[in-house]
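ingest -> validate -> predict -> emit
validate: passed (alphabet ok, no gaps, 147 aa)
predict: started
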Amino acid sequence: MKEGSESSRETRSRMRVIAVQTAQHTQMKNITAEVERVVAESECQSGICCVYVPHTTAGVMINEGDDPDVMRDIEATFNKLAPQSNSYRHAEGNADSHIKTALTGNSVTVFIENGRLALGRWQAIFFCEFDGPRRREARVKIIADAI
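emit:
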């Protein structure tokens, strides 16, 4: 992980980069444990955690993390909505990946309470690969509440 720090009188923030290796063209990879590790290392007790994916063919989402069939259903639905082979105008051959990323978005924000991510009981954070396999990154920024 790369590290960056920014601070001011009112807030303290920390940024880390999580390396993500994907194995399939479309893959939902649970990165919750890696994000939780960044939160724990920050020692932030109260604030927000932003996860940002700086790619145009990959995104991030929060969804059910307990039953893997949920992610399989989401992948299958994305592939129906934007099939890999279609008559797209984009010449690089990955227009479906851009469309899927537009549907998921590139960032999520989670509150930090008592030093932990305040995710719901079944929620997890997923890196969404739509043009893999590739080596990617997710940037995690922790911003502590000003006290």
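The chain is about 25% helix and 40% strand.
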